[in-house]
Specification:
The protein is mainly α and 100 residues long. The protein has a single domain, classed as Winged helix-like DNA-binding domain superfamily/Winged helix DNA-binding domain (Arc Repressor Mutant, subunit A, Orthogonal Bundle), CATH 1.10.10. It has 3 helices and 3 strands, in the order αβααββ.
């Protein structure tokens, strides 16, 4: 019995991780770009706009060619990440409204 070298698996895992990181970075950029323009937005509207931009390939300058499938869970995960990093905040009286 001969096992395949581990390097093949490591390369595949690294490629998957790299692809996920790129997707997360693009989503975070889209979220901040949309909120910079709008200043504040209901979280449902933000999710819809990000998903719509992903489907249309409107990822921003230099990334128009990048069109990928994203789900609301992906967007919400990035919103939570940006909230934890301090880039976004919720309104105290209306926690479903996000501000940049």
């Amino acid at each position: 019995l001969r096992l395949l070298p581990r390097q093949r698996y490591l390369r595949a895992e690294r490629a998957e991780v790299s692809a996920l990181e790129r997707k997360r970075n693009v989503l975070c950029c889209l979220i901040t770009r949309i909120l910079k323009v709008e200043k504040q937005l209901h979280i449902d509207n933000l999710v819809f706009r990000v998903i719509d931009a992903c489907q249309k390939g409107e990822s921003g300058p230099g990334l128009q060619f990048l069109s990928f499938c994203c789900h609301s869970v992906d967007v919400l995960s990035c919103v939570l990440h940006l909230l934890n990093q301090g880039y976004l905040r919720r309104q105290e009286e209306r926690p479903h409204v996000l501000e940049y």
